[in-house]
Amino acid sequence: EVQLVQSGAEVxxxxxxxxxxxxxxxxxxxxxWIGWVRQMPGKGLEWMGIIYPGDSDTRYSPSFQxxxxxxxxxxxxxxxxxxxxxxxxxxxxxxxxRSGQDSGxxxxxxxTLVTVSS
Amino acid sequence: xxxxxxxxxVSVSPGQTARIxxxxxxxxxxxxxxxxxxxxxxxxxxxxxxxxxxxxxxxxFSGSSSGTTVTLTISGxxxxxxxxxxxxxxxxxxxxxFGGGTKLxxx
Lengths: 118, 107
Known about the structure:
Chain A is mainly β. Chain A is 0% helix and 54% strand.
């Protein structure tokens, strides 16, 4: 069974750093892309970026380039999304999702709620 | 910058047909994907590659493409189909984006 399990909710202060995770199981982790999607409170889905754990090829939406870093550790089948300095506007639900060749995001994690507040 | 445009809302009565459109200049060259999201839940893929239906998705969900517009059609809408629907597609630079989302209301 394909599963993506994300790390738990986080409450942080502005300026703090954060790294959230997404662990894949039930499939070949290095053969599929893993993407990250932001959903701000009451708003729509935003495509942030994607990584291919097999060779670490990474692509970012222009809106998120330079704002976050996407990485992966294929030895533990885990992808990451990290911030070096959080802002209140980073408060959102973040989803990871698996993407195959022309399959779209076919499996999703349960989401990680990040709250940034002073 | 590239955009995918969806109507903010669509309303239909139970048993009727709902059509949700998504427009974008690159859609003739890129596949579109459709996602259903209910409150408090992660999105679910309902259509991939413009018109393919994943296993487990009811047959009343279908997709089509014509020029710069793709359409998600839900035939015989049921109350449980009330949700937000998003299209997803790629641009020419190797990145992707979602449409703004459409709230489907079942009257």
